[in-house]
Amino acid sequence: MMNTATQTPSAAQRFKAxxxxxxxxxxxxxxxLLFALNGFFNANTISARGITGLFSTYxxxxxxxxxxxxxxxxxxxxxxxxxxxxxxxxxxxxxMNASAGDGATTLGIMALGVLxxxxxxxxxxxxxxxxxxxxIVATFATSIFFTGIALYVLPVAGMPAPMIxxxxxxxxxxxxxxxxxxxxxxxxxxxxxxxxxxxLQLLAIGDDxxxxxxxxxxxxxxxxxxxxxxxxxASFAAFCLTGDTxxxxxxxxxxxxxxxxxxxxLGGSMLSGGFGTQLGSLFGALTxxxxxxxVYFVGTPASWQNFVQGLAILIALMVGILISRRS
Amino acid sequence: xxxxFVMSPSELIKQPLFVAFVLIxxxxxxxxxxxxxxxxxxxxxxxxxVAALLGIVAAGQNLVILGGREGIDxxxxxxxSLSVIVAGNLMDGMNINIPLAFVLTIVTxxxxxxxxxxxxxxxxxxxxxxxxxxxxxxQGLLVVIRQGVPSGxxxxxxxxxVSEPFVFGLPGILWLWVGIGCFMAWLLRQTLFGLRIYAIxxxxxxxxxxGVPVRTVRIAVYTxxxxxxxxxxxxxxxxxxxxxxNVGSQYMLTSIIAVVFGGxxxxxxxxxxxxxxxxxxxxxxxxxxxxxxxxxxxxxQIIFGGTLLVLxxxxxxxxxxxx
Lengths: 327, 323
Fold this sequence. Notes:
The structure holds two protein chains of two kinds. Chain A is an all-alpha fold. Chain A has helices spanning 2-7, 9-21, 25-41, 48-73, 81-98, 103-130, 135-153, 163-169, 178-194, 197-207, 209-214, 219-245, 254-266, 278-297, 305-324, and strands spanning 172-173, 176-177. In chain A, 76% of the residues lie in helices and 1% in strands. Chain A has a two-stranded antiparallel sheet with strand order 1-2. In chain A, helix 5 (81-98) packs antiparallel against helix 6 and helix 5 packs parallel to helix 7 (135-153). Chain B is mainly α. Chain B has a single domain, classed as ABC transporter involved in vitamin B12 uptake, BtuC (Orthogonal Bundle). In chain B, 71% of the residues lie in helices and 2% in strands. Chain B is built from 14 helices and two strands, in the order H-H-H-H-H-H-H-E-E-H-H-H-H-H-H-H. Chain B has helices spanning 9-12, 16-34, 41-66, 76-91, 98-121, 127-146, 156-163, 172-190, 192-202, 204-209, 214-240, 251-261, 273-292, 297-314; strands spanning 165-167, 170-171. In chain B, a hairpin with a 2-residue loop joins strand 1 (165-167) and strand 2 (170-171). Classes of the chains: A mainly alpha, B mainly alpha.
């Protein structure tokens, strides 16, 4: 695809057209390339076990990035997404430790966790869409606020998750690992949302807020919905992270916020809004994961790994933007 | 801007400078009530020193934001951290090394700022993405340099410059900050470069038509942001005496908040540095009150986040859809 695209102008144009139709295409190409490279340097990474490992580690980021997409579509941003994740993480951990720990209670607690995420998102949405605060600074302030609440719920990291919780996360059902089902569920959600009214409206708002308003779209309500959905997906991300780390940590998610934004951009969505796909964000999150493992498997010295990884992500961001740019 | 003395109260409340000033006075009073001695001269000087560190970073952030096209620099905090380490290692606790360390650290900051500028202009990467990627790169570089061990010691003269009385009992860093304030006012008001920053920030298309070298100006603005962050890093080294892991990361978003509280619009083209200085002072007083009073960490965070939100309602609310 890449080669033919560079040979003749018509092929390049066709590739551009394809990118406009499938904005996640560059992300998918980068992802496939990384996947192949990973396999080249360590065959285990492309085995079923390797892919399962990748999923179980990066499912949280995948959910967070897909959630972040809702607000980015409308030209907004949520810098508190990772902190909502932390809050839900410590919330369900302390609740599960305080309760009997059977399956039904755990599911009930997770339902409450979704409400916590939705509540945080609603708070963000009201501040930004109704009170008209600027998204970057307002969600930075709420991120401090949510961190405070998370510290109140659990002051220090380390409370373990009940065994049943993480055992389920790492278990297999009908011959397939549990995380594969979660990925499938995420894909179904993405598919359903891709044809939903709310995503279409968010994209329309991101494209031209004034025009959307003048053609009768409920701009304020839709933006609030975007933030609520982002909060809900942050709580899903928290469930996955809790399964992966099997413990509570009030500060675990803050570093993931900027990664989720990077994943959305890697996935071909425009930060200014109006253009993008959630499938791309999922690919973007996996790209970040694969860059990390590739840097490790090519034998980068330990102290250089962060640098090489940062550089690779920066280059991937640039390449993605350059090849997907609509002229 | 109209003279503050001839304004009606309803006009006054819309002036960010005035609001920031009033809030600073209120917060100082609150601080004095909660902890007597909060407004003693020593404390005020200490507060101003901490505010100067933030204010210097925010100077660069201010220029980037004024330059428009969603201008923002998320890498300033990382550049500060890097500068603390670079300057500390080059100085190694000796006064004689200061000139070389100073020059090389500033060049380092300028280099990363320049790269940001090139990415944003020539490659047309959105600033948030470019500086976010650069943040990751610099953080990685920090690990490489540090190798897990904190290293680098401030030269005695630098530590004195930041902490000891210099002229009229005020430490040198405050004079430096005042100097930067004057420099920024001159740069933005009196020079062609300053006018061009406002021009590209308020209407880039018009600026292009008018023959403004938009790319050069924008690259220069990002480079300056790196320079100011490096300068703040050097001062921070003098303040803390040695380098710690990621000391600068706190400045990433607080520098943006200081700019916003100072009345500069995130959309670009509107605002000035005087406001940003007040914004920095405001933020530092707020943080200081919260560390002075005896409450748990969670309460501190909740109050800090909550107060920021309340303050934001005073500032820079976006236009309504019906406007």
